[in-house]
Amino acid sequence: MQSNKFILRFKKHQQYLYISVLLIALFFMGSALINPKITSVTKDLVEDNIQGNLKSKENIVMFEFNQLNSYILGFKRIINNSLELSTQQVNDRLLFNSDLAMSNQVISNSFVGFKNEGNSQINFSNKKDSLYIIDINNTIKNIANNYKEEFLLDTIIKKENKVFNRKIYTKKRSDNTIFVVGYDVDLLAFWEYFSEMYRGDGGYTVVTNKDGICILHPEPNYIGTKLTRYFKNISIDKVLQSSIKINGYYVLDNTNSLKTKATSEFLGLEVLRYFDTVKVGENSLIVIVSFPLDIHLDKISKDLHRYFSWISFLAFITFMLILAVSRFQLKKEYFDNLKVVEEKEHLVNTNEKYQKENALLQLNQLKKKMNPHFLFNSLNSLHVLIDLNPDLSQQFVLKLAEVYRYLLEERQGNLISVKKEITFLEQYVFLQEIRFNNSLRVSIVNNYDDIILHEKIPFLSLETLVENAVKHNEITKENPLTIEVIVNKENITVINNYTPRKKKDKNSHHIGLSYLENTYKFYQINTFKTAVIDDKYICILPYITLK
Length: 547
Fold this sequence. Notes:
Elements: H1 2-80, H2 87-102, E1 107-115, E2 120-124, H3 130-145, E3 150-159, E4 162-172, E5 178-186, H4 187-197, E6 204-209, E7 214-216, H5 236-241, E8 244-246, E9 249-251, E10 258-263, E11 270-280, E12 283-291, H6 293-326, H7 331-369, H8 372-388, H9 390-408, E13 415-417, H10 418-436, E14 440-446, E15 456-458, H11 461-472, E16 481-487, E17 491-497, H12 511-522, E18 529-533, E19 536-542
Parallel strand pairs: 14-16
Antiparallel strand pairs: 1-2, 1-5, 3-4, 4-5, 6-7, 6-12, 8-9, 10-11, 11-12, 13-15, 16-17, 17-19, 18-19
Helix pairs in contact: 1-2, 1-6, 7-12, 8-9, 9-10, 10-11
């Protein structure tokens, strides 16, 4: 009798046994299918990360070394563009550029001089270093013995515990005056600056000149030595040949970088080593970046496999427990749980609504930060400006860089001080005024003391209003757009003449004003106003005080 009851109970519950066995089989089948895919995806992600890291390091190297080379280019430009000036006037300008070079913490010595039939003069930045003065004078004599109309020396000098990158430029003018300028870059001081400035993971960077002499290495003892072992598998000529040769120097041809596997003496590990060239002045540098790829890939793969296994196992155990417990639940418990589920769904829906609104605000901010239309117009303006006014184009590039640095920097919240927002607006207006010439006029008036500049307003609020004025109004020489930004005690008032465009922008969705309205609503401030009065568009931005 008991046996019959057991059989009946077994048959009644055997469907749950079948479901459990099926779930176990699906669990192991899924693990077997997903694990290889995880490994493949992980490898692709690591490779993509390495390529991005490599290009980032190359750009950093090119920027920093071009900064160090910019002073010799400045000397050259002064000499070649001062043909109508007297020798002393040119010398004074060169001395000013020499002082500018010496303001760089990694430039240790500098000199400027000239020679002609009636006079000879050389000024050294460090007059107490007699050995340096003798060395430079000997170098100048050697150059004079093999003299050319124009000569540029860029070499590495290693003396005792010092390593220098010496740059010398000589030029003979039509009046037979020979100008000689140059300076020494302390590569060990540059190593300290570079190591402190650019910390981070993802491989280490080595830089050599086109002769294979090290000028940057994580281990400073290698600086100034020839890194022969780095070019055993891939020669220097092969690295240079992978680039385009133009006028005697090499520039990257945007193809894939050369790479090889090697054993790093610095790390003591097998690494994947990438070789590339970057352009610095009229020379090229070889950039070598080493990544411990296998260790990095194995660690990430093992971590992902372990996390996936634990998550899958816990999900499986949780499901089985729910399946076992649910079979013995009472009807009352079922309805209680149903009520709880309904409450949870309500909370989830409420939370999703909040997240959607928050995401919309963040999306609006991101769209404003990375405005491709603004960047496109700026680059077009810069393209025209480079030929018309090179000096102003340099200012334009610096302002554009400051604008995007401000836009992309990380910050908590969406508020900013009035002072910072006005400073950013001045940089932004500088770019726009160059684009529209005299057709755009923006003035900023502070009717209160400087204490008010510490008040808070929404991030990008002033730029938003100026951009809207430019976007939605006619701007011509006959009818210029005039914008006034007035800083008051309680708020900032922005006023512009209202001459709406006849053809409205179909892509305009008033995202900027919606962003400002939502921000002020969030802080429960209802004094934010916009209106058109007597052909004037007026916007009032109240200050936001955090409680």
